[in-house]
Amino acid sequence: MARTVLTDIASQTWEHPADRAALAAMRALPGFDTAINAFAKAFGERGVRHLFLASAVRVGPTQRPQLDALWTEVLQTMDWPTRPQLYVTQTPTINAGAVGFGEPFVVINSAAIEHLTREELRVILAHELGHVMSGHVTYRTIAQIILMLGMGNLPFLAGVAILPFQLALLEWYRKSELSCDRAALLGTQDPDVVLTSFMKMAGGREFGDTLDVEAFKEQSREYEVDDSAWDTVLKAINTAFRSHPFFTVRAGELQRWMASGDYAKILAGEYVRRADVKPGEHLGDDIKKGASYYGDQAKAAVDKLSDTAKRAKDAFTDAMKGGAR
């Protein structure tokens, strides 16, 4: 299919307000800058490359040339002038990552190549390019090192309040995924392919059976629409130490973004250009949007809690009336 080339598109076009709000909150943590500097000093660019590429093969014109050509197409669609190196590593989980400090590179797991179609691989590559273009890679690299090695094995963080740092980093990490799901859609320009990719990453490929993306869309709506405040609490607990949001949540967020009309506007040429971006220019607006997003979530949770309490009170009152007869 023909895709619209998004000439000079800036990452601010697709970044989720919760991504920006979570990043601002993380940067405000006491000791955050100290921790970042400690990571960079301890590992360095070469150290990170050794850690992530000890068992990986670099993609190029003669090494997986079809994947290399697909990577070229994604870079062209997003009009990104630099070409991060692409690697494949032998791993049984469908995933990929953008890694590095000064010179980001992308690593894609071999399971993605095994289980996904060419167009679904486009989704994965566009998603990772989104992280590169948004400047996420330094913080995400740190998060991945923490997940790989564990906080307790990083003694240079001894002076940092570990748990708040870890929770804040993972909260932002999850929200940055929502931003780059939008980048994946812009790089692919086929909503059903993106959602099918989510479905396969959640439950695997067909294996001779049938997958139904419409049923998956309905599942994502069911997950988000519940009547229980306790379910809301459980969801928060279940995601606190996860690096990625649940795929049903990601599907719901992406469908809401499309329904807002922003996606169609971007394809029509209404988006922020890199040439027009000035550092910090829209920071106040970003903070307001992020606060609004979290405020809406909090209000919804309080409303659910109030509704649950009211129903419990009514049930108790009815039971007492019944007992008094």
Number of strands: 4
The biggest sheet amounts to: 4 strands, mixed
Q: Which strand-content bin applies to the residues?
A: under 5%
Quote the distance from N terminus to C terminus. Answer: 71 Å
Sequence stretches where pLDDT stays below 50 over 5 or more residues: 227-241, 290-313
| H/E element order | HHEHEEEHHHHHHHHHH
Count of all domains: 1
Q: What's the multimeric state?
A: single chain
Total number of helical segments? Answer: 13
From the alpha carbons, calculate the radius of gyration and give it in angstroms: 22 Å
Principal-axis shape equals globular
Tell me the strand order in the biggest sheet.
1-2-4-3
Mean pLDDT: 79
Structural class label: mainly alpha
Estimate percent helicity. 55-70%
Keywords: Cell membrane, Hydrolase, Membrane, Metal-binding, Metalloprotease, Protease, Transmembrane, Transmembrane helix, Zinc
Pfam families: Peptidase_M48 (PF01435)
Family: Belongs to the peptidase M48 family.
GO molecular function: metal ion binding; metalloendopeptidase activity
